[in-house]
């Protein structure tokens, strides 16, 4: 455990940031799963838009890297467009 005051504060800040990062990850992961589940349905476009929005937010906050967000979105779009093409 930290002894100095600044170390205690740093620990508090790290815990707070960790919780915020986990919440952000949870939102983009659930949006991503919802978008994958809605592939082929009428609300697929809206779900993909929400997933894209959440990925961009996570990248902007620094929770995930910009390239990681782009890769995840690219893979999602590939699956969605593949399902549309099969119909």
From TrEMBL:
Pfam families: Ribosomal_S20p (PF01649). One of its GO terms (cellular component) is ribosome. Gene3D superfamilies: Ribosomal protein S20. GO terms for molecular function: rRNA binding; structural constituent of ribosome. One of its GO terms (biological process) is translation. The keyword RNA-binding applies. Coiled coil: none annotated. InterPro entries: Ribosomal_bS20, Ribosomal_bS20_sf. Keywords: Ribonucleoprotein, Ribosomal protein, RNA-binding, rRNA-binding. Binds directly to 16S ribosomal RNA. HAMAP family: Ribosomal_bS20 (MF_00500). Belongs to the bacterial ribosomal protein bS20 family. This is Small ribosomal subunit protein bS20. It comes from Candidatus Magasanikbacteria bacterium GW2011_GWA2_56_11.
């Amino acid at each position: 455990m930290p002894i100095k005051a600044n170390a205690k504060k740093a620990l508090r800040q790290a815990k707070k940031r960790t919780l915020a990062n986990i919440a952000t990850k949870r939102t983009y992961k659930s949006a991503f799963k919802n978008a994958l589940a809605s592939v082929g349905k009428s609300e697929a476009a809206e779900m993909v838009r929400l997933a894209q929005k959440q990925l961009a937010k996570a990248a902007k906050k620094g929770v995930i890297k910009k390239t990681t967000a782009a890769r995840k979105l690219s893979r999602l779009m590939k699956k969605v467009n593949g399902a549309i093409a099969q119909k």
